[in-house]
Every structure is written in C-alpha cells, then in structure tokens.
Amino acid sequence: MAGDTPLVLEERHGAVLLLSLNRPERHHALNAALNAAVEDAVSRAEADPDVRVIVLTGSGDRAFCAGADMLEASGVEERSTTPALKRGGAIGSIGSTPLPVIAAINGYCYGGGARLAIGCDIRLASETATFRLPGSEYGLVVAAATLPRLVGAARAKEIIFTARRFDAAEALAWGLVSAVYPHEELLPAALAMAQEIAAHSAGAVQAAKRVIDAATLSDEATRLENEANRTLRGSTEQVDRFRAATRRVTGR
C-alpha cells in the first residue's frame, strides 16, 4: 500500500467480487506487496460464502498487468517489506482458487500479467488490450505449461519463442480471449457474465472447474516449467538479459 491507497481495490456486486490491481504508476506490475495483496484478497473471498465469482482487472484505462516489477526483480529497487507469500502470489492464488475468475483485460497484458490472465478461467479483452510473453527474451520460461491448452501447441510455441507483441483481435482469433469489447463496454460485460455464473449452483460450477482443469492442465508440465526456471534464473545469461531488458523498459 502506498500511503492510504490500497494495492487492490475491492468492489462487491452482489455475489460477484471485482478486484482491481492498483499500481497505475507501474501499470500494475507485480511487486512483492501487490502479490501479497492479491493473495490476501483471494483468500478472504474464498472464506466469504457470499462470494461466488471474481472479476479481475486493472484500475484505470491503460493496463491489466504489465508483469513482474522489473526494478524490484532486478535489484534496482529494494524489495518491499511484506509477509511471506503462501500461495505463489497473484498468479498462484488466482490459479488455485476454486472460485471462477473472469479476467477483464483492459490494456497492457505482458509477461507475468499475461500468465496471470491465462490462470483465470475466462478472459475478456478491451479493443485496446495488447499482449506479450517476453520470457524467452529475458531468459525464462513463462506460461509454457498453461498457454497450449488455450491456443494449441504450435501457436503457443510461436507466441513464446518470438516474444512478440500482439493485439486483442489476434488474441481472439487464437482463442486466448473469448470476446473483445469496446473499452467502455468491457467491465460491464465481464460483470454481467459473472452475475450469470453466480446465479447458478456454486457447487456445480466449482466442481465443473475442477474437472475441466484436471482434463486440460498438466501437473508434470508445470513441474517442468518450474524446474527449468530454477535452472535458468540467476545464470549469467539470464541476469544479463533481464538487466538489459530492465534498462530498455525503465531507463534504469
């Protein structure tokens, strides 16, 4: 939290909880404090029997989530003092929650931010949304375990190997998002879909989510991605690549 400004804005719409990432000065980049705030918000939502669906977005008009905070991750800025993460931060908690989660992607959706969106159950995008998975440029593996179930193996390889930026129309054509809306219609559409889901049996919806995830997610693939990153992260090449990318992106 910066001053009195929450890092995650919470807004109830009946049985729907709207969570808005709120570091607009960094395009909602995931630092330790924001990761902890998302973890906490998701855990509290799970403990509330009146919450049936989560909608996740970024505050403002420019970004959903720009990925990991590069200045903190590269050591240029000191890591914020926060409680230890228990569920893998934003990506881990959103990916593991039994509650259905709709991502309302309203701008930049890069790196860890794209991985966060991929971990949601349904993705809707604004016409202004843009996407990029730059892990191979930075010397890491990002979303290789989860992206193929959405776009297929060949397209996932293209997206991850090239690390190129693509727009909402391409994301829709490839199956990464379910629908694209004019910017001002995105959040109302996401909330309307969430209300429709919330009106159904919570037990049946959550059971269906477990079954679909069991049918399409691979624990072995996730283990291999994590293992690869343990090997890659901190190597001379990965550190050099990440610092070079940090300088390009932030000028620092």
Describe, in plain words, how this protein is organized in 3D:
This protein is of the alpha/beta class and 252 residues long. The chain has one domain (8-184, 201-250): 2-enoyl-CoA Hydratase, Chain A, domain 1, CATH 3.90.226. The protein is 48% helix and 17% strand. It contains 12 helices and 10 strands. The chain has a 6-stranded mixed beta sheet, with helices on both faces. Strand 1 (8-13) and strand 2 (16-21) form a beta hairpin. It is globular and about 50 Å long. It starts with 7 loop residues before the first strand and ends with a helix. The mean pLDDT is 95.
- The helix tally amounts to 12
Q: Work out the count of structural domains.
A: 1
Major sheet size, sense and barrel closure:
6 strands, mixed
What class, by secondary structure content?
alpha/beta
Question: Under CATH, the topology is which?
Answer: 2-enoyl-CoA Hydratase, Chain A, domain 1
What is the oligomer described by this structure? Answer: single chain
Please give the order of strands in the largest beta sheet: 1-2-3-5-7-10
Span between N and C termini? 23 Å
* CATH architecture title: Alpha-Beta Complex
Fraction of residues in β-strands: 15-25%
- H-E string: EEHEEHHEEHEEHHHEHEHHHH
CATH homologous superfamily assignment: 2-enoyl-CoA Hydratase, Chain A, domain 1
Q: Share of helix among residues?
A: 40-55%
Radius of gyration: 17 Å
Shape: globular
Low-confidence blocks of residues: none
Number of strands: 10
CATH class: Alpha Beta
Mean pLDDT: 95
